[in-house]
Amino acid sequence: MRAVFVVVIIAQLCAIVLSLAPMNISVKGRWYNLAMISLFVQWAALSGCAVLCLSRPFLKRFSNREAGLISYSLILLLLALLSEVAYWLVYHPTSFSGLNSHWLFLLRNMLIGAIIAGLVLRYFYVQQQWRARVKTESQSRLQALQSRIRPHFLFNSMNTIASLTRSDPQQAEVAVENLAELFRISLGDARSSYQLQDEIALCQSYLEIEALRLGDRLKVDWQLQSLPMDARVPPLLIQPLLENAVYHGIEGISGGGTIAIHGQRNGRHLLITIQNPMPPPSGQSHQRGNRLAMDNIRERLSAVYDRHGKLKCEQIDNHYVVSLHFPYRRHDDEDSDRG
After folding, report:
1. Which CATH number fits domain 147-327: 3.40.190.10, 3.30.565.10, 3.10.105.10, 3.40.50.720?
2. Model pLDDT for residues 168-184, shown as the tens digit of each residue
3. Which residues, in sequence order, are CB contacts of 212 under 8 Å at separation 6+?
């Protein structure tokens, strides 16, 4: 629809230019010319869009250059046909007479149409190349962002597993499996997405690893019953926020605390909030690392959801609250919610 809208606007601008070009026409005549030219130009533009849309399965067999030449030829053939129809329906009975006027009308339309069609096709080709380049860069950046795992979490996990190897081998094996799953997701393809229930399961595996180290100091309150678990989300969307809650919140409190994860659906959007108690002020601060992690999530939301994905952070009554707001999608469709 966006492409069709652009074509309509370009066509109407061309119609306005063509109606303003003649010098010896009255104001009333210009309005009449604008109406007739607009009718023909929009007719040709929308018909051209329809022909190219129907020809897409055929054009996909060719290279970009070949597909561009074929598309250009199809538009010129369509323009010749429409010009012939317009001449016999409108211009021939009222304004023109003779074979020379007929060919002059067709030649003028073909020359103007060839110039405009060439410019429009070039514009869309450049746009397509630009979008492809931006998409590739976004995917590369997203892969790099997704692959970042804090070293302190890895070291703590390995130390915990090492301490459990002799005292509780079975628990150590479960911890290794959970850690392996976390690494598998972090090193996976950033372009893919998976269901929200898989992200929740990954978060639970992560919290199980942390619970081995923190014990009763770590409590979790899950309130996600109203969320559709079939929603598609990018990998590691929620887990880094839980890691922040543990590292910047629970670890700094001697008695520990509760991480509350709540979720709700608002129409076509999902809202997930993560709340954790804040430790008392101390000389050591992890705020810089917290900001880096939040910037990481914001960039990933922007890369996946464009302006529809938002991350909000705030402090409420000695609690740190992070809110995730993003579209509800059930399929791997990047553009379904972009407008």
Report:
1. 3.30.565.10
2. 788 888 888 878 877 77
3. 160, 164, 171, 175
